Amino acid sequence: MKKIILSFAAVLLFLLPGNICAAGEKLPEISAKAAVLISADTGEIIFQVNSGEKLPMASTTKIMTALLCIESGGLDEEFVVDSEAIKVEGSSMGLQEGDIVTKYALCCGMLLPSGNDAANAAAVKIAGSIENFADMMNQRARELGLSKTYFVTPSGLEGDGHGSSAYDMALLAREALRNETFREICSKQTVSVKFGDPPYERRLYNTNKLLSGYDGVYGVKTGFTDEAGRCLVSACERDGVKLICVTLNDRNDWNDHTAMYDYGFSKAKKLSLRLNELPELDLAGGENDVISVKSASIDLTVLDADEKAFDYTVLASPFVYAPVKEGDEIAGLRISCDGRTVAEIPLYAAENADLKRTAPKKRSGIVKKFIADIRKLFS
Hints:
Elements: E1 3-7, E2 34-39, E3 45-49, H1 62-71, E4 78-80, E5 100-102, H2 103-111, H3 116-127, H4 130-143, H5 166-176, H6 180-186, E6 190-196, E7 199-205, H7 210-213, E8 217-225, E9 229-238, E10 241-248, H8 253-267, E11 269-273, E12 281-284, E13 290-291, E14 293-294, E15 298-302, E16 310-315, E17 320-321, E18 329-337, E19 340-349, H9 365-377
Parallel strand pairs: 1-16, 12-17
Antiparallel strand pairs: 2-3, 2-10, 4-5, 6-7, 8-9, 9-10, 11-15, 12-13, 14-19, 16-18, 18-19
């Protein structure tokens, strides 16, 4: 293991993309103005074309909108959509004035049929206005290190400065896919949700043809405007190898993603990290001063990285307090590669830790005499 650091806080850092194409290597021929293929785990770039150039990204914007909507909570709470928010051009999930809906239905509506009405309705519900929600989107983009990304609308309809890079969108998708609800929704080819006045069941269909057109694809989002052209963010997994692909302004996106995945699966590999050199943690209140920990191994998709490329940060309180049973989760482990967080996994107690035994306190002579006198009364 390369390095283990005890820490109580950590900062997410992201590498800027670079061109890694080897000279003389046969690369995919694509028509996108910008494209990138990365490891969904490490963020390593496997293939790229102009991946750092800021461009309009159309409805792939809704990846951020849906993620913030899910994270806001209360997904099953019913409410009436804002009548002005749903008055928007372009693709729609079919919302009308007075409709009762849930945030979950809105996420389905923006991720599958790419409803601009769903994105706007969610934004106003969460932040009170489109502008306030855009501020939330940009704050989250800064937290994720998306240096080429700026949001003006939750739907992706262009505003002044609204845009991102292929690499930023890949990192955003990587973050969003860590959310189980987001992944579950964007992987569906079709879904039934209820909304209306009163709500009734509707069937929504996904615009992402790769879900059925390429083995292993499980997301993420399509997009199109006249200015942005065809945009596509997708994710795919085969035999434990997980990749994310992004194309911006691409007239042949389905075929380009297929070609990039074919190339990526021929280059990337699965690396199993065996976490056998974990440090002991300080123990308070136990028979011993420390306690040993254990963790399951983890599989990661890599291009060039080997076990020496990873750093490990133990996330724990200053002390673990007894009693502890073997198998209890007592800390966490952050795995990083080149400063970028790859995964966070739990650490478990590798042994029992009982409370420290203390000798019984000796009774004073006065106490002993008092107890003896009480016993005499009842003898």
